[in-house]
Amino acid sequence: MAMAVAWSSSISPYTFINANTKRCSAISQATDLPITTTSSTIRPAVILPGLGNNTNDYEKLALILKGYGVPTAIAIVSRIDWLRNAAGLLDSNYWRGTLRPRPVLDWYLERIDEAVSEAKELAQGSPITSLSLLLNFRIFFYYVAVNL
What we know:
Elements: E1 2-8, E2 15-19, E3 24-28, E4 45-48, H1 59-67, E5 72-74, H2 92-96, H3 106-123, E6 129-132, H4 134-147
Parallel strand pairs: 4-5, 4-6
Antiparallel strand pairs: 1-2, 1-6, 2-3
């Protein structure tokens, strides 16, 4: 079972997503949030596929979120895309533990940028939320640091 943490660009409770291949469920840590919300309180979610996963692996999660009125944008990733990360193995900095995210992860950062742009269109000026696994969460923090 994979555990993901949601991050948003403004202060809000964290949301944990339990996902496995058979079912997905969203569980909010906040207990004081209303069950029904208006469209002005729901922010779009950006879903970042985890290492080795593809966009289709998150379609069910997107449908569940849509059922709660949360529009989603999933970064477009195929399983074969992840092989690009192997290029880092050829860099001596990898073996010294000093490899930087660029240029090895440029392809993924571009996919994040596309998904974030789509979510911003859906948000119409309101904040967005990122749903990702831990490694991708760290990559998203890097993306935010570079792009803000």
